Amino acid sequence: MVETEFTLTQREMTSAVRLSGLTAVFRLRTLFWMAVLIAGIMLTIFILTRFDLRPRPALEFILGFFVLYAVYVLFGAVLYWVLWPLGARAQMRNSKDLSNPIQCRGDDAGWHVRTISAASDSRWETYTKWSENSDMLLIYMNSTIFQMIPKCALRGAHDLHQIRAWLVQAGVPRVAPLR
What we know:
This protein is an alpha+beta fold. It has helices at residues 10-25, 28-50, 57-94, 157-169, and strands spanning 2-6, 102-106, 110-114, 119-123, 129-132, 136-140, 146-150. It is built from four helices and seven strands, in the order E-H-H-H-E-E-E-E-E-E-H.
């Protein structure tokens, strides 16, 4: 049995939101559509420069690719360092449950969570996936709803290994976040 009680900090909430976002970006469907978008933009740039009679269409194509890549990296940086932390801060501010103690207990049957206004008893098999980083373990109830377990709230490595073992035993897939 694993038991813990914690109050989420802003840092932990931001870590959870970032981990969830990176896990979502890693979905094959998302990567596929990002690749289609980039390929479409590159094809457009190629067609526009290829049929123009300027002397260096290949150079323009390469420059267009690097500009597109720079915009993509800039968007990712703004998302990771600005938008996700702002979203986490707003979520902490708007949810009384997240700013009060959360009690969790895990056993062979499942994961049990109690807050000031809600209770959840979920069997391990009902979770759809799980992910973790150095600070946080997330267990997903569906593609967007997850339960957060700060690693610092666990009593030690044994508790973390036990939770992982329950998830693996139940056949819940681990999803590695995009790094």
